[in-house]
Amino acid sequence: MIVFDRVSKRYPNGREALSNCTFEVNTGEMVFLTGRSGAGKSTVLKLIACLERPTRGTVVVGGKNTTTLKARHIPAFRRHIGVVFQDHKLLADRPVFDNVALPLVVAGLPFKDMDKRVRAALDQVGLLGKERLSPMELSVGEQQRVGIARAVVSKPPLLIADEPTGNLDPNLALEIMNLFRRFSDVGVTVVVATHDLHIVREFAQRELVIENGAIHGELNSNLPSVIAVR
């Protein structure tokens, strides 16, 4: 599903966020991306979503080489990736339904199909019946669930999340991570960037650790690591 082959990323200001990173994430796998703040976790996610391009090396996602992907093909490529943010990025002036439906509107899906897909996504995250509420009427945990529903409403094969539990208390954080694990259980590839090592240990999935711009593999539980560091 995801292959990084000797990937480096240097920003225009000269900072090298990643250096010679090689790793793979298998289809349907749930992986945690950890490391201190500023270590490069967000850069990895941006490279996966083709929000950034590598300075050197090759990034392949779902069989597509993003390094050579033409600009006109990027929007279609991103429709196969669900993205969850720490701060939700919800539209406060739109109801929950409209927030979740946004990717389908962009894709031009007919309203009849859109209605079914939005309600199914809200049902998956336990918010069915709240589609007409404003996001501001929801708790922080419910707002994050709306963000997840929006990310999965298009049924993407890949879900990436950047610190999705950073603003949540421990119990809510576990609930959100259980949602991600449920998606992984049905074949969705899930990559979660987090600094919460308690969550990582609790779920015992493979962990990719970023240190000084390099990615290393750690063995969680009895799972084999497929990380190669070159």
Topology readout:
Elements lengths: L1 E9 L5 E10 L4 E5 L6 H8 L7 E6 L2 E2 L8 H5 L2 E4 L11 H12 L3 H14 L15 H13 L5 E5 L7 H16 L3 E5 L3 H7 L2 E6 L2 E5 L12
Parallel strand pairs: 3-8, 3-9, 6-7, 7-8
Antiparallel strand pairs: 1-2, 1-4, 4-5, 9-10
Give a verbal description of the structure.
With 230 residues, the protein is α/β, with parallel strands linked by helices. It has two domains: 1-80 and 157-230, Rossmann fold (3-Layer(aba) Sandwich), CATH 3.40.50.300; 88-155, no CATH class. Helices cover 33% and strands 25% of the residues. The strands form two sheets. It has a six-stranded mixed beta sheet, with helices on both faces. A four-stranded antiparallel beta sheet has the order 2-1-4-5, covered by helices on one side. Helix 3 (96-107) packs across helix 4 (111-124), helix 3 runs parallel beside helix 5 (140-152) and helix 4 (111-124) crosses helix 5.
